[in-house]
Amino acid sequence: MTTEKQLKDVLSRIATAERQANRSSGAVSLVAVSKTFDADQIRPAIAAGQRVFGENRVQESEGKWPGLKREFADIELHLIGPLQSNKAAEAVALFDVIETVDREKIARALADEMMRQGRKPRLYVQVNTGLEPQKAGIPPKETATFVTFCRTELGLTIEGLMCIPPAEENPGPHFALLAKLATECGVEKLSMGMSGDFETAIQFGATSVRVGSAIFGSR
User: Fold this and answer.
1) Could you tell me which of 118, 122, 64 has the C-alpha nearest to residue 96?
2) What is the pLDDT of residues 29-81, one digit of tens each?
3) Angle at the Cα of 87 (from 68 to 75), degrees rounded to 5?
4) Distance, CA of 126 to CA of 152 (rounded, Å)
5) Measured between alpha carbons, how far is residue 163 from residues 14, 67, 116, 195, 217 in Å?
6) With a threshold of 0.85, does the pTM exceed it?
7) What residues form DSSP beta bridges with 191?
8) Which residues share a beta bridge with 127?
């Protein structure tokens, strides 16, 4: 199947999941995960109307997205992979949304760069709902305190929460936990759900889903 057909299929599945969850049409945004794919491989999705994309690495993104963003001014680029503090300047300059704010050092670096550059990408806090030692993210019990710190100490606007459930577990309880934390923190956006579980995420209130392989194929 072509990228265009796979994209259409994913959008259709999102619309069906919205209806089944009694959510309004268009309530869920698709973030097309284009990591490891070059500009020419991404273009068919852009031509088909997709405008929101997700990348894992700042350096890889710098090699393909500045040109595409000049060509298509309405593209919205999300950083969905771990951010190192020494890449904060590049991240603030390139990305429209940074979904992986996960520790005080990163939050401070982003606040400094946003002030310096006069650019304010929207921010999400990543939550490690499975408390996996190898995975980035704030522990669930510390999420509300961290969001408050970002807001009051650093003046950052936190728009939402993001999670990646453990691969071997039922994602439903993790999505439910993230939704509960979002309510506690007073944030409205929930980035959760990937190619294998985005329909479940929509049932639990996802406002955006991150889908790569179901659109672009295996890497």
Assistant:
1) 122
2) 999 999 999 999 999 999 999 999 999 999 999 999 999 999 999 999 999 99
3) 25
4) 18
5) 19, 30, 29, 14, 22
6) yes
7) 162, 208
8) 138, 163
- Under a CB-based contact definition with an 8 Å cutoff, are residues 69 and 46 in contact? no
What is the 3-state secondary structure of the chain?
CCHHHHHHHHHHHHHHHHHHCCCCCCCCEEEEECCCCCHHHHHHHHHCCCCEEEECCHHHHHCCHHHHHHHCCCCEEEECCCCCHHHHHHHHHHCCEEEEECCHHHHHHHHHHHHHHCCCCEEEEEECCCCCCCCCCECHHHHHHHHHHHHHCCCCCEEEEEECCCCCCCCHHHHHHHHHHHHHHCCCEEECCCCCCHHHHHHCCCCEEEECHHHHCCC
The residue whose two tokens read 């309880």 is 173
pLDDT, one tens digit per residue, over 82-98 is 999 999 999 999 999 99
Sign of CA dihedral 120, 158, 63, 212: negative
Helical packing angle, 143-152 and 172-185, nearest 10°: 40
